[in-house]
User: What shape does this take?
Amino acid sequence: CEDDFLEVESTNLTDQAVFADPDLADAFVRGLYTSVRIADKEPGHNGDDTPAGFGRGFHWAMWSSVSDESIYSNDDQTYLVQRGQMSPSNYGFMSTSWGRNYRNIREVNIGLTNIDTDASPFEEDVKLRLVGELHFIRAFRYFELLKGFGEIPLMGDEVYELNSDFTPLYDRKSIDEVVNYIDDELAIAINNLPDDNGARATRGAALALRSRVLLYAASPLYTNGNNDAQKWQDAADAAKAVIDMGKYSLVTNLDPDPAENFRKFFVTRTATSEDIFTRFYMETSSAGGRAIPIERMNGPNGSGGWGGNGPMQNFVDDFEMANGLPIDDPASGYDDQAPYENRDPRFYATVVHNGMMFRDRPYESFLPGGLDSSDGNEPWNTSKTGYLLRKFMREDITLNDWNDMGTSPWRYFRYAEILLNYAEAQNEAAGPDASVYAAVNEVRERAGMPLLAGLSQDQMRDRIRNERRVELAFEEHRYFDVRRWMIADQTENEPAEGIRITKDSGGNLTYEKSIALDGRSFDQKHYWFPIPLSDITASNGVLKQNPGY
Amino acid sequence: QEVTISGLVSDLQGNPIPGVNIVEKGTLNGTSTDFDGNYTISAAPSATLVFSYVGFTSKEISIGNQTKIDVTLIEDISQLDEVVIVGYGQKSRATLTGAVSTTTGEELVKSPQPNVSNSLSGRVSGVIGLNRTGEPGVDGATIRIRGISTTGDNNPLVVIDGVANRVGGLERLNPNDIENITVLKDASAAIYGSQAANGVILITTKRGTLGKPQFSFTHNQSFLTPTKLPDMADSPTYARIINEINYYRNPGGGLNQVYSEEDIRTFENGSDPDNFANTDWVDESIKDFSLMDNQNLSIRGGGERVTYYASLGRLHQDGIYKNGNNKYDQINLRSNLDMQATDNLKIGLDIGLRKEDRLFPIQSAGNIFRAIYRTYPTIPARFSNGLPSAGVEQGQNPIIISTGIPGTNDQLTTIINTNLSVEYKFPFLEGLSLKGLYSEDRSFRRVRSFSIPYTTYQIDNSTSPASFNEVVGGPDSGTPELYQEQEDYVLQTANVRLGFDRYFNNHHLDMFIGYEQQESNFREFTATRTGFLSDQIPEFDLGGGEPEQSTNSGYSEKFTRQNFFGRISYDFDQKYLLELQARYDGSSRFSEGNRFGFFPSVSMGWRISEEEWFKYEAINNLKLKASYGLLGNDRIDPFQFLNTYTLRPTDFVDNNQTPQPIFIINQLANPDITWETAKKLDVGFEIGLFNTVSLEFDYFSETREDLLTTRSGSLPLVSGIVNEYDLSSIIPQENIGEVENKGFELTANFRKNIGDLNLFANANFTYNKNKVVFLDDAEGLPQYQLTKGKPLNSELLYDAIGIFRTQDDLDNNVTLPGQQLGDLIYRDVNGDGEISELDRVRQDLTNVPQIIYGFSFGGEYKNFDFSVLFQGQARSVQYVAAESGEVGNFFSSWANNRWSPTNPDGTYPRVDVRTSSSINEGLFRNDFWLVNTSFLRLKNVELGFSLPKYMLTSLGAESVRLSLSGFNLVTFTKAKDVDPEGDSGNGQFYPQQKIYNIGINVNF
Assistant: This one.
C-alpha cells in the first residue's frame, strides 16, 4: 500500500501561506475593516450584501431605530430596546457587539504577531502602513466596546487560543485605562499612516477617531459627571488637529438649493472633500459588494418597499423652522396643521412626509385610502410613524432591482462632525468663543440655516446638541450622544410618536400625533449595554455585570 | 473410495427445487441442484449429505449403500437455516451472535413507495425512519439506528454489494432488485471500524440462479395524496382576526377598525369576489390526487458456468401542485453476472446504471408552502377577469409560483455503480481462499435553473371601473437568469481478503484478514448569467454581456481511507459460538498522529437448545448471546487540525468602487482532533416455540465518547473565538462530548400453515433513551437548563402554564412588560420575580422518538394473499408555530380556538401581528407550541390475487398476480395541523404522501 495514501491537501489556505506572501497578508489586513455576520438579520457574506464594517451601517434595522430617531417596521428585536427590556441574554442587535469586536481584536493580534516582526517579508514602508492600520482598527474596535459597555477587558497583544487561560479576559479595566489604551493605539496609527490610502485608514481617519474618542471621554457619562475642563480641552485640540490638516471641507457645490445639496451629498458614491473615512459599495453587482437594498428596505409599502426605519415625530419636531427658531417658540410661525412648511432644509433631505414627491409620486400616508398607509399594499410594511427615511436613498431605481440598490457609501467620519466635535468641546472648555461660532455656523451655513449669535454657554450647548441631532441624524451618533450627555433618561422616556393624518371627504388633512410604539421606556441601567449572559456564565461569575442588570 | 450419488430434490407439493445446496458434511465438497431439481455428487459411502435451501429445513442423510437419493424438503418456519449477510461475509441465522435485523426485497416491494428508505419503517426493529417530506425526488427518510448519539452526522453507513458509502445510496435502488437488507445494530458492525458507530445497513442485490431464464414483469399505477394538510382560517374568520390585531394595537378603536360587520358578511356571501374573496389556498394550489407509475422487467437464470440477473426499471412520479412544475423520473438498469471461470476461480461483474431526473418549480417547496399557508384568504387566487392576483410579498401567489411560469429547476443525476469481484479457492489447502473486489462508482449531476420574470396583478379601486396594476415577480435583476451547476463525484474502492473456512469434526472455524482502501473525489462548478433578452432559450451564450452579469465558482474535495481488518468465527457443533473482529482504520480527515484507530469487538452465543440434556419439545430454539465492541465515527469536516483562511472576493470595496479580495479566518486548528468512539454492549436471547413462534429480545447500551462537538458554554466571546452565523464556524470540533443510549428491542414472529391457509404475524418494539453525559454546559447554568441528562438536541423553552384570562391572573403571576389578557403565562422557574432567559427549561423529548414499533400480519389462501403493516412512534415532540398574523393566515386550530375579548375561554393565546415577533411565540419560544407527534399508522396494506393455473396456460405465463396496495393509509395522532413526521418549526413543508396502488406482476 502507498504510504502517503492518506495525505490529502486542504483546498483552503493555511496561516503559514497567508503571512508569507505580502499580497495575501495585505488582503488579510484589509479584511479586518469588515467583520463576519454573528446573528440573523446582520450584514454578512451571503451573496446579497457585504459584511459589517464598524458599527452597523445600513443593515435592516439601523442604529437609529434603537434611538429616538426612528422606529423599525419589522421589530427585529429593536422594540425590546425601545421599551427598556434589554437583558443580558438579549439586547437586540447590539448583543453581538461584544463578540464581534473581540473577534476582530483577536485577529488584529494575529496580524500584528505575524507582520510586526523582524522576520516578516515586507518592505519597510508597507510594514509600517499595515502596522498603522492594525493599530487603527484595534483602537476603533475598542472604542466600539467602550461606548457600549463602559469598562471592558483589554486583551493586550496576545492571541488567545482554544486552550488558553481566559481568566485575564474577565478583568474589566476602568474607563480612563481604556481611553488611554485607545489613545496610545491611535498615536501609533497617526504616526504610521499615510494621508492617502484608498478606502482604508489614513492619518486623517486616525485623527478623526481620536477626536471622537476624546470627546466621549470628556462627556459626563465617562467622567462620572465630573466636569474635567482639561479633558474637554484635549477633545477640542484633537478636533482642531483634523481641522488644521486643511485637507477637508464641507461639500457645497452639488446643488444651489441647500436641501438638494445635502440630499445629493449622501447619495454621492465617490469620496468628497468632506469625507474622512468612508465605507464604499459597488455601483451595481449581483455578486455582493453592496450594502443591503436600503431603498427597498426603507421605501414606501405602496411601491413594494418595507417602510423600514421610519423617522419619529420626536425627531421631526427637533428640526428648526427655516428662520432658525425651534417650533415651540411662539415666534417661529409653526402651524401644527401645516407642519412641514418652512422647516430646516435638512428636514426635506432627511425625512419623507405625506404629500412630498418621492420616487416620482406624492407619498401618501393619510387615512383612509393612502397608497402608503395601512390601507395600501402589504400593510405590515407600512411605516410605523407615517414618515420614511430619505437620507441615503436613491430614487432613480425601481424597487424590484435589488442589484441597483444599496450603493450609497456609509460615511464613518465626515468633516461636519469634526466641526461639531470642536464646537462642543471648545464650548465646554472655554465657553462660546468666536471659534465655537465659526465651527457650528460653518455647518449651519452649508445647510442654508441662519447663523447663530449671542448665546450663553448653556444656550450654545443646547444648540450644538440639536445641531448634531439634525445634521448627523441616522449616522449612529444619537444613541450614544444622549447617553454620554446623560440626557437619555429624558429623551428616551418620551413616548415614541408618529403622525396620524386623516383625509376627510373634501380632501382636507388633519394632523394628529400618535403613539408609534407603545411602552417606550429607559432606565438608568440602560446607559450601558449589559455584558452578555453567556460570558458571565462561562466565567462562572468572575466577569462582572454592568449595574442594574 | 467414492461413489456417485444422484437424485431429485422437491418440496411437499412435489415441485422440484432448483439451487438446493448439497454438501458432504464436515467438508467443503458440495454441489447444487439444477433447474429441474436434479443433482449429482461424489462422496464416500460413510459420509453424510446435508441438503439445504433458504426457507426450508435442512436435511441430513447418510449415504450408506444408496446411489440414488430423492429428497423432500419441508418449509422451515423457524428460519434458523436462513443465510444472513453480515459484514464481509454471511452466516446462518442459527449461529448469529450479534444484534442483526433483516428484511427482504420481496417484503419492501409491498410498499408502493418511490423511495426505499421509506419502506423500512415498522419492518425492522431498531430502525427509525422519519419521512420529513414527500416532495418527489427528495422524499427520503432520515434513518437512525437505535436513536442518535452525536451532535454531528447520525446517518448509518450504507454498504451495497460489499462497497461502503456507495454512490447514489440506498434511496433510489429499485426494490425489485434488492435480494435482502441486513441492519447491524451492535458491535457486530465493528468490522466497519471508523464508520460503524451509527450502525450499518447492508444491501445485497439479486444475483443469477441456476435454471432456465425467468422473466418477471411488474406494472404499478399509484394515486398519491397528502397524508395531512392543515385547515386554514377562512376570510370571515381572518377578517375578525385582523380586526382583533388592530383592537390590541388601539383598544379605543373597537373591534371593527379594519373590516365592518358588513364587510365580513360580504366575505361570507361571496358577492364581491375581487375585493372580498374567500380563498382556500390549499384547495387552489394542490391537486386531489397526483399520479405515479412504474414498470420493472427482470430476467434471472443461469447454467453451469454463468448465472445472471438483469433488470430494467422505470418510475414516474408527479408533484401535487395544480398545473405544477414538479416531477421525478427514474430509469434504472442492472446486470449482475457470475462466472465460474475455472473450478477454483469465480468472477462477478456488476453494473448498475441509474438516471434520476428531478424537475422542481423555481422556488423551493418550503417557499411555496410558505406562500400557501401565509397568503390571506381575503385575496382572490385570480380576479374575476382571470388575472392572477399578486398574493403577498411581490407576486408570491402560490398558484403561479408552483407552476412553470416563473421558470424551472431541472436536476439530472446519472449514477454508475460497477464492481468486479474475484474469488479464488486455493487447491493446495482445503478451505483457504482469496477474495478481492474493485469498485468504481461515479455520479454526474447537473442543475439547470432558469428563472423568468412574471406578472401578477393588484386591484386598484381608485379608478372606475377598477384597474389592475402589474406586480412583477421573479429574479432581482428583472431579466431571465440562468444558473447551472455541474458536479462530478468518483468513488474508488479496492479490497482483498484472505480467508480460511473449514470444519474439523464438530469444530467450525471461519476467519479472514483483509485490506481495503477507498478514495473519493468531488468536484463542482457553478455559473450564473443574468440579463437574458428573452426567456425562450436557457443557454449561457444568450445571456447578458456585462461583466457583472456573469458569476461562477468552483470547489473540490478529496478524501481517503485505508484499513486493515479481520474476523475469527468459531463454533462448536453450532452450540457454542464465538466471534472476534477488529479493524485498524485510517482516515485523511485527521492529522498524521491521530489518523489511525483500532476498533475491536467480541461476541458470544450459547444455543442451549442444542445441548443433549435440553429436552423440551416445545422449545425448538433457545439461544443466549452477548456482544461488546468499539466503533468509530469520522463523519466530520476535514482539516480541522489546520488553521485555514477563506478568500472572499467582493467583501471590501475600494474608493473607486472596485471590489478587493479579503481573507477571513475559516477555521481555527484543533491539532488533536480524532475519532468519536462508540462503546456498544448488547445482551439478548432468542427463543423458538412449537416451530411457529420465535421471540427475540435485546438489551443494548451505547456510550459515545470523544464525541466531536464544538465547545459552547465554557468558551467566552471575549476570547475573540467567535463563530460566524450560518456559515462555516471557526471553532473546530473537539473530542469532548459524551452521550449515552440505553434501551431494548423485542421482536416476535409467528408463522403457521393450516391446510391451504398460511398465516404470519410479526411485531417489533424498540425503546431507546438518549442522554447527554457531557456537552460543555457553561458553569453558571441552573440545573434545569443543562444539556446533561437530557436527550441530544432538546430545546430550551419557556414553560407556558396557561393563558391570562382575568385581571387576577395578571396580578397573581409574574408578567412581562406589555403582557395582557389572552397572553400566555410563563412560569417564573427560578422565582426571581421576572421572566428572563433563566426561566427557560430544557425539554425531556425531541423530534427523535423514544419508542418505535411495528406489527404486521397476513397470509395466503389458495389464490389470495394479503398483508397489513402498522407502524408507530411515541415519546416525541415537534415545535410547530405557523407564520401567522398580519404577515399570514392561521391554521384553523389556532384561528378557531384563539382567546379574544369575545372568546375568553379560547385555548390558544390571542392573535398577534406576527408570530415570530410575538410575546407568545417568537420572542419567548415556549412549550405551548410543542406538538405531541406520537402516532400509529396503517403503513401498508396489500391484497393479492394470483390467476389460477388453468388460465395461465392459455396466457403462456407461469404466474400472474394482481394486487391492490396502500401506503400511509390511516394515521392516528394528536398532531392537528401537519403530519407528525414533519420536522419544520413552522409547518411550511411539502407534505408526506398517502399512496393507493394497483399492480400486476407477470412471470413467464
Summary: The CA atoms of residues 454 and 473 of chain B lie 5 Å apart.
